[in-house]
Amino acid sequence: MMRLAIVLALYSFNAIYAPNQASIALTLPVLILVLVGLGKIRSPNLQIGDMFWFCVFIFFAISPLQRMGDGTIGGDWTVTRHAYDAAEYITAMAIVVVFLLPFGFISMEAKDPDTTTATPPAEWMLALNILAFSLFVVLQGGWQQVLLPRLDKTWSEASALSEAFLALQTVTTAVLVANARAAGRTWSLVTLVAVAIGLLAITRNPFNASRFSLLAAWVPVGLAMLRGRLQAAWFYAVALFALLVLFPILSITTRLGLVGLGQVEDIDFADNLLSTPFVDIFDTTVHAVRFMSTHDWMLGEKLLAVGLFFVPRALWPNKPIVGGLDIGGDLLNGGMAGTDNLSFFIGADAYMDFGFVGVVMGGLLLALFTAQASASRLGSFYGVSLLHAVIIASLPIMLRGPVGAVLPLAACQIVILIILSRTEWRQPLPEPAGDRL
Question: How far apart are CA 320 and CA 300, in angstroms?
C-alpha cells in the first residue's frame, strides 16, 4: 500500500501542474502498469521490482507529464522544442506499454537467499580485488586518466576492456563487505574491507565517474552492508532525493571534477520538482517513431548491436550501431540536441528493427529473463543476494539506455557472480569469531 500511495501522490501532483492535459490520458496506461507491478510486491524490503517500476514511472509517466506542451517535447533539457503530432506521441507510448506489458505478469520479488555457503577465503577476494584494480588502472591509461573528470578522459578499445576488471573489483568489494557482516567485524576482515573500499573510491567517485556507474559500483556494496535488507520506504525517499538533488550535482562534478563544485550553487533544486532533469528517454522514443517514418526497418541490426556489445569495433569495423546513436545523431544534426549521446529505450531498438512484432517479442524475452533472475539463488554470498543487488543497481541505466553502451559492466558483474557461485569455490559460512571492534 505504501508503494502505491507514493506513486499516486507523485502522479497526482505532477498531473495538476501538467502543461498539457492530454499527457494525462497518454500516461495513464503506464501508471496502471506501474500500480499493478508494485501491487504484486509483498516484501517490506527493496526488491528488483521496486527499482524497475520506479524507473518506468519516472521515465514514462512523470517525464511526459512534465515535458509535453503545445505539441512539443523538452524545454530545459537536451531535446528541446521539437514539435510532434498526436499519432507520434501515441505510437511512442504504445511501444512503451506493449514492451512493458509482460513485466506486469511476472514476479520481481526475490526468494530468500542461500545462507548456507560462502565464497573462497577473504584473502583470495582481496587479492583478486587488488589485481582487478591494478589492471583497470593500466587499461585506463594510468593514474592520471583514472582520476580525470569524465569530459577530460580519452577513450580507447583498451579502456573499454577495463570494464571487466572494474566489474571484478566491484563484485569482490561487495563480497568482502558481506563476509565481514556475516562473520563479525574482526580486525582482520575490517582491514581487508577498508582496503577494498579505498581502492573502489579511487576508481569510482563523484569526480571521475558517471552517475549510473557510481550506482553500479556502490549500490551492491551498500546493500551488502545492510545484509541485503533495505526498507522499501527508505528506498523511495532516497531515490527521490537522488533524482531531484544528488543527480543534478553529480551531473556537474562527474563531468568537471572538483572545479564543478563551484557551479552547484547555480542549480535550482525547487525547479526540479516539476521538471525532473536529464530524463529524455520518452523524447527519444517519440523521435524514433518519426525517424522510422522515413527509414526502412533495420531487420535486426539494432538488437544485434546490443547483443554483440562485447565485440570490439577494431575487429568488426562495420559493426552496427545502437538505435540511440541514430536518433541522437539525427537530433544533433537538426540542432535539437547538444550531443548524440542521449538515452534510448531498448523497446525502441526493437521497434526500429521489426516494428511492433519486435516490440512484442523483445518484451516477452526480457520479461522471462527478468523473472528467472529474480527467482535465482545464484550470486548469494553470506546470506546476501549480490546478483539481485547488481540488477537493482544496473536497472536505472539499463532502462534509460542506450543498452548496448551500458551493458558491459552489468554483464561482467553477473558473469563473475555466476563463476564465484560454482560449487568448487564454496565453503561453509564461518562462525562469528575473532577480536571484535
Answer: 10
